[in-house]
Protein 1
Amino acid sequence: MSNDIDALAESARNRGLKLVRSRVRTPNKRRFGKVGLTDKAGKAVFGMDEKGPIGKREDVEDYLRNLGARDWGASLDVAVIPRKRKPTKISREPANDSEPGPRPSKPQKKPKEKPKPKLKLRDAKPSDTARIVQLIGELEHDVDEASVRKNLGKLKKAGELPLVATLDKAVVGLIGRHIMFTVHRPKPVGRIQILVVTKEARGHDIGRMLVEAVEAWCRDRGCGLIEVTSNDRLAEAHAFYRHMGYERTSIRFFKKLS
């Protein structure tokens, strides 16, 4: 086991990363045997949350292996120097008339490239209800269509409808927005209530565009700051918010009232 971990740490170092091991030494404890990856500056890269590593060794190994495959593929992108060809002898035409050669064929038309999917941000509509329920389900929140439809009506009256992102009219992302007034701040506070982009549509900067749209919306309404909460186990989401310039400033508590 120790040799495997050492080999994994070496693999991480070869890719400019650092393997972080859990300090929990008691079997059956929550973080026992967990590992994660950070960059040289100590920022979370994979399998980490604020309290330390939460990843499995085999998941980290797969992550590093995929990085290695990409590095290997990039290393093949090298220039190839063509060999010099010997000059070919030009044959002379015979003195008598020759038969006409075949007519040159018409160049074939290149196949048209598929247009890139069109991305659009807009207010959520009641007809989006079923898709919104599916997106919320990806965050492991249990909600039904009737509740979502009812809440959309209330949010519309409050002027705080969530935004959805569409690719070729298919809803692939959702962000909730809210403005609140507090007694201890001179300006209203903006809040991102929920953010989710379906796995199939990631890699198009949809999350960034949704966050920037809500930031602009809050700024236009005089907010002095914007905040967001995120579950402890969503390490990738935490890394995304840090990349967007958000800082961790507090710990969230909640209590169910019913």
Note: Helices lie at 2-14, 57-75, 129-137, 145-157, 206-220, 235-243.
Protein 2
Amino acid sequence: MNAELAAVVLTRNEGKHISDCLRSLDWADSRVVFDSGSEDETLPSAQQNGAQVLTHPFTDFASQRNAALDAVQADWIFFVDADERATPQLATEVRRVIAYRGEAARAGWWVPRHNIMIGHRMRGGGWYPDPQLRLLRRGRARYDPERPVHETVILDGAAGTLKNVLIHYNYDSVAQFRHKMLRYTDLECRILHERGVRVHPWTSVSMPVREFWRRFVSLAGYKDHVYGVLFCGLMAWYTFVTYWKLRKRQTLRR
């Protein structure tokens, strides 16, 4: 008996992307849009493309993905973001690996990504190969509740790595990057605060410098030339804002 695969897309106001995303997943046995309160064309577009729509209130990303794992009935769950596209080559590979039995069977599979940023396919800086643990055997995978953002999967078993990529249309503009990152810094700040991380006077400088060095040098962001400088610099800015917010929060609580 063939394993059943459900492609699951978490959404909130993804009307711009959802139709193209779902069309790239039409090879799955079922496609589920797991929505957290969209107010645009996301849900009508999902239904027009033949996807099942489920709704669930959002608290954090890890909780949302765990709720989807509980709600969707299939042997395998393939999580895809709305701004990602599956290639035909990836579809063929996914179908092949979920059919494995015995020693070749895995509890999950890592999927590499090509990140497209302002029209440029990134080659370094942590944006390639950018592996994501997205293909999960249902019942043998949960998301770590201690990592509500930049989620981490806890697997009951071994994971393999696929060769073919997801295409991630990450950012169209610097303004979009800044808008998204400002939202993420609030989550990061909360996580660091709950973990008891203390901010020293020099932390807001040392951590951004470390982040830029890590991405531009250690992770070869220099391969992307001006795009590498830009986005490694923006990630350093993101780190600065996170620790600035944390310091402000700790100062107010004294």
Note: Residues 225-252 form the longest helix (28 residues).
